[in-house]
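Board notes (copied after class):
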Amino acid sequence: MSFMHLPVMPPVKPMLAKLAREMPAAEGMVYEPKWDGFRCIVFRDGDEVELGSRNGKPLTRYFPELPPALRANLPQRCVLDGEIVIAGKNGLDFEALLQRIHPAASRIKMLAETTPAAFVAFDLLALDDDLRARPFVERRAALEQALATARPPVHLTPATGDPVVATQWFDRFEGAGLDGVVAKPLSLPYREDERVMWKVKHARTAECVVAGFRTHKDGEGVGSLLLGLYDDEGTLHHVGVASSFSVVRREELVEELAPYRTDALDGHPWAAWAEAEAEAAAKSSKGGGGRMPGGQSRWNAGRNMGWEPLRPELVAEVAFDHLQGDRFRHATSFVRWRPEREPRSCTYGQLEVAVPEELEAVFRA
């Protein structure tokens, strides 16, 4: 039971950003790196610390290493907006964050020790008083003062008023796992759950093999296409999905994919995946078995992630914003079919690789 008594109490829905294709360059703007993690509102009242997610649900139990660090680095009574991130050997590691959403406390404790999280602050909602009506320029100054002596794993996000510097960050910091730049007016009050900031994200396209699909969650039409890329040894790797189709397009895809469902598992490069899924489903019906690839979603226990194979003969051009390791970080957008492309030509070699950058360089910016 919480005994907090703050001027801003949970839950808080964070202020949001809308997509911009070019860097906003109006007077009175401030720019920050766009962190690739879990959005988090931190509430601290003395020894009590609570972590709230973007949808208002608590995150505290999934990151037991953060409350002690926040107590050591934050003012006694405050509410901050920021991002929970995990730094891996190649920059920010979103997959490591996903591993934390797990029911077993013992596993969470183990991961907290082996892949500890950090908190990056970028707004201050309360410091004794409610600051949400104040302009961002005042909230930022108060945040800088509040975190003047903070030490890792608590960080203050860099900020600049120069769009040229922001553009340099946009290019340079992708190699550290960041996925763009956020721009906000200095005069902006904190407006919960409204898209009043701008985010500039990387936008690229790739040609991928379509080797399977998932039915939409409502049971009607195609919900997503399963995408693959070949490595140098000729192995087809599952790299992500294309989704967000309209109702009409979902039905059209059923007809377009139908010819490729015939004998799809014969020699399919992901046949073992399908067999493992079928075996897991059989065990589940008998009360046994665990989560297999393509099984239950980590985020929604009622969502079936089962898939249907397709002969890997179709090539789709998709738009994506960020590559993490050997997979697309977010779901991609379908652009068009590429019937003239040979599936075997869809390799990792077509993808631009960001120049690696140390996360410490971001914090020093």
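Comment from the instructor: The chain has two domains: 16-202, 204-350. Residues 271-285 form the longest helix (15 residues).
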